[in-house]
Write a structure and sequence with these properties.
Number of strands: 26
Bound molecules: ligand LQZAQKY5, molybdate ion, magnesium ion
Structural class: alpha/beta
CATH class of the largest domain: Alpha Beta
CATH topology of the largest domain: Molybdenum Cofactor Biosythetic Enzyme, Chain A
Oligomer: single chain
CATH architecture of the largest domain: 3-Layer(aba) Sandwich
Length: 418
């Protein structure tokens, strides 16, 4: 096979390797939210991105209601009747009582509307009830135990902004204002390409020199957790024509193409020339470890992200770069990257890298019971067990030396997988 130049000048950087932040800025600036929405019942909208805001037509709660099982009273009646009131009515949740007659109490239950004229609810534990009467301690505070109309949501308020990825709480919130259907962006279609002559699918016997395609499953899983529709382009042979053909199919069938492998400099790496054949490369290196060779470009009008084939590098580049790219295309508004938490290091890091480094990490309890973060013993980008072991990534700045006990930056998977 012919040797070929492996470089293509990155447009935005004058040929320099990009920092992670520069790369994310370019990725997210080059794409825009996809067109197309659908209207879904709440039951089907979990994880989707809202395309039209939810505005409440109601106050929630709709009326003053009781926060306790007990007695609704007019506070001024207590001193006038020495704390002893006749129980004149019973108001369970779902019912509406009569106006409170002077000198009486209403038996009331949590969530029931406070009757007109009552200004206080007294929990039953402090009351003594017998023979249709209730005795209430005089020191009860006026206005106690009432949830006020509109204290959660006011009619006319925007309760969920457009661009929000819907969590269970958002679905509940929409339901609480009576909204049954939501307008969401259509699912982003992402084509997945696994390059490598050595790859076989689990379930197949391995021929000599073959390995199982694990990247496909890592990427599919991530794409599914991010709410994408996956178009699997399968395993693509290490030759230019097959790579070009797979990419062209990806560009026809999906909004975005994500490839694994073949992004490095060997003559078995065909991703870059294939992108150049069909479109252009915007950058091909980022100053991080692992994951330095990372290709971003455009193929027949579709964005393409080529992640390195080493399994850990693939994972790291997917959560750092594919995620914000996807969120932007899905129409998610606001912050697209996860902000690192600062957590105490449970490890020493005496020999830092010159690149921004991502270590597989796990939250643990130190000897004193305080939260700290441990890193996996191997730094190898080929050890996928490290990712399964971890519950986040530690982010180490170029040249940053860490002594046990220092604060370090931690990116939790719980956020990266969302
Ligand atoms: N001379 C140089 N060689 C390499 C460099 C370099 O700068 N100069 N960079 C190294 C780094 S760093 C990385 S990362 C890798 C990137 O590799 P590629 O993206 O070209 O990927 P491949 O060569 O196809 O594969 C690398 C490695 O990963 C395994 N692999 C690939 N696909 C899968 C898959 N779907 N499932 C599981 N494992 C996969 C593959 O068998 C190789 O072992 O390049 C270095 N080399
Ligand atoms: O960047 Mo490679 O990703 O260091 O193994
Ligand atoms: Mg390679």
């Amino acid at each position: 096979m012919m040797d070929r130049p492996n470089d293509c000048a990155p447009v935005a950087t004058g040929g320099k390797t990009l920092t992670k932040d520069q790369a994310v800025a370019i990725l997210t600036a080059r794409v825009s939210p996809i067109a197309g929405t659908e209207t879904l019942p709440l039951e089907a909208a979990l994880g989707r991105v809202l395309a039209e805001p939810v505005v409440s037509t109601l106050d929630v709660p709709g009326w003053d209601n009781s926060a306790m099982d007990g007695y609704a009273i007019r506070h001024a009646d207590l001193s006038a009747h020495d704390g002893c009131l006749a129980v004149a009515q019973r108001i369970p949740a779902g019912a509406v009582g009569k106006p409170l007659a002077p000198g009486t109490a209403a038996r009331i239950f949590t969530g029931a509307p406070v009757p007109e004229g009552a200004d206080t609810v007294v929990e039953q534990e402090v009351c003594e009830a017998s023979d249709g009467q209730v005795r209430i301690p005089l020191e009860i505070k006026a206005g106690a135990n009432i949830r006020r109309a509109g204290e959660d949501i006011r009619a006319g308020a925007e309760v969920i902004a457009s661009g929000t990825r819907l969590t269970p709480a958002h679905l509940g919130l929409a339901a609480s204002v009576g909204v049954a259907r939501l307008v969401v962006h259509r699912r982003l279609r992402v084509a997945l390409l696994s390059s490598g002559d050595e790859l076989a699918l689990p379930g197949e016997p391995l021929k000599p020199g073959q390995i199982y395609n694990s990247n496909r499953f890592v990427l599919m899983g991530l794409l599914q957790t991010w709410g994408c529709e996956v178009v699997d382009l399968g395993i693509v042979a290490d030759d230019l024509e097959s790579t070009v053909a797979a990419m062209a199919r990806g560009a026809r069938e999906a909004d975005l193409i994500i490839a694994s492998g073949g992004v490095s400099v060997g003559e078995e790496d065909h991703l870059k020339p294939a992108v150049e054949r069909l479109g252009r490369i915007e950058f091909h290196q980022v100053k991080i470890r692992p994951g330095k060779p990372l290709v971003f470009g455009e193929v027949q009008g579709r964005p393409l992200l080529g992640c390195p084939g080493n399994p850990v590098s693939l994972f790291v580049t997917a959560v750092l770069f594919a995620r914000p790219l996807i969120l932007r295309m899905q129409g998610v508004a606001g912050e697209l990257e996860v902000r690192p938490l600062r957590i105490r290091a449970g490890f020493d890091w005496p020999r830092p890298d010159r690149r921004l480094e991502f270590q597989r990490a796990r939250l643990e309890r130190g000897a004193d019971g305080e939260l700290e973060v441990a890193v996996y013993p191997s730094r190898s980008s080929a050890v996928l067990s490290s990712v399964a072991w971890a519950d986040g990534l530690v982010q180490l700045q170029p040249g940053q030396v860490i002594a046990r006990g220092d604060p370090v930056e931690f990116l939790p998977f719980a956020e990266l997988f969302y």
